Each structure stands twice: as C-alpha cells, then as structure tokens.
User: Which sequence fits this backbone?
C-alpha cells in the first residue's frame, strides 16, 4: 500500500501528465484515489485556479464509510460522486472525471462513442450514459452510479460512463490504468467524429 505522501504526489504527477496531453482541460475535472479507508482527491478549482499544477499538500483527504452531508473545503465539489462510486465498486481505486473536448461533445449529445479492440474487451462496445443533474449534487452521484450498474457489475475493476452534459468519468484499480482508459476513449471519440465527417461528404 502506498504511503499517503506517495498517493498525493502520484495524483499531482498524473494531473500534469493528463493536462499536458489535453486529456484534462481548464474548464474543470477531478482526480481521486482510494487507499485504505481514505479518499485522496484534487481540490476545488484544480483547473481554473491551479491550472493542474498541483502540490502534494493541496490534495485533500476524506475519510470514507459515512455519509458526506457537506463537502469539506477545499475538496472538489464532486467528492460525493467519487465516494459513491468507491462505495459501489470495491475493485476500483482510482477515478478521473474529465471534460476532454472530444468526449464532452458526446456528453452534450447524450451519446457514447463506439468502442473497438482492446478497450471494447475491457468496457464493451459502448458506454452507459447518465442523465443531466446539478454538478456536485447527490442527485448526480446517484445518477452516475445507477448508469454504471446497468453496464458494470459491482465486482468490476475498470469502468467508464458518459455524464450527461458534464464529460466522462473513468475508473480503474490504479491511476495509470485510469489514465490509459481516458486516453483510449478520447482517441475513439475523435476517430468516430472524423469518420462521420468523411462519410457525410
């Protein structure tokens, strides 16, 4: 098990890598890890204020196992969403919520990109889609978990969901794997957009 300082550093490193690869944007998003009974999550305004250049001391910790009546500041406002997924999926220990531009288009349209090859073997041929709810709300957390459960059993170790009007959430056993899933989904989304453009000409 990673030490808490190692977890904090890993989240910061991952945020920088994903932002530099255009997989995180300046419009929002959040990253978390579960270690033992604690959730480590990026702070509010990680995109707008910090530009994803985070320091380990800025990563927030939330104890799991009890209802979160109010998100502690300065933790991400989507802490409820992350906690709800962790409480449902014991094999998932890392989550990334992104507004990546290609996947954001699908989220606004309420559609999933078509998946093929290795990512399809991992996640299936398409992703579940949650309805639109208020960001940061308990309603959003419940809607996302409900959508995930239509596709992924509670023992899943990898998952992804299009969040209606609000981007994508991906999860895996570790942050590296979650980042790889996000990258693959972005590539498939872009490829499908380009394919449909040429087919319409």
Assistant:
């Amino acid at each position: 098990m990673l030490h808490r300082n190692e977890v904090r550093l890993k989240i910061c490193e991952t945020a920088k890598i994903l932002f530099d690869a255009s997989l995180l944007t300046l419009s929002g998003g959040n990253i978390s890890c579960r270690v033992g009974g604690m959730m480590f999550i990026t702070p509010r305004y990680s995109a707008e204020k910090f530009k994803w250049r985070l320091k380990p001391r800025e990563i927030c910790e939330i104890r799991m196992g009890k209802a979160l009546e109010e998100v502690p500041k300065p933790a991400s406002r989507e802490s409820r969403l992350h906690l709800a997924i962790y409480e449902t999926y014991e094999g998932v220990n890392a989550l990334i919520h992104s507004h990546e531009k290609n996947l954001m288009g699908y989220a606004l349209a309420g559609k999933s990109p078509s998946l093929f090859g290795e990512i399809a073997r991992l996640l299936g041929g398409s992703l579940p889609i949650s309805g639109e709810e208020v960001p940061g709300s308990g309603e959003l957390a419940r809607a996302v978990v409900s959508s995930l459960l239509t596709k992924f059993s509670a023992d899943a170790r990898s998952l992804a969901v299009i969040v209606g009007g609000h981007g994508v959430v991906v999860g895996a056993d570790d942050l590296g794997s979650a980042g790889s899933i996000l990258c693959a989904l972005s590539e498939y989304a872009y490829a499908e957009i380009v394919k449909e453009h040429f087919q319409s000409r």
Summary: The longest helix spans residues 175-199.
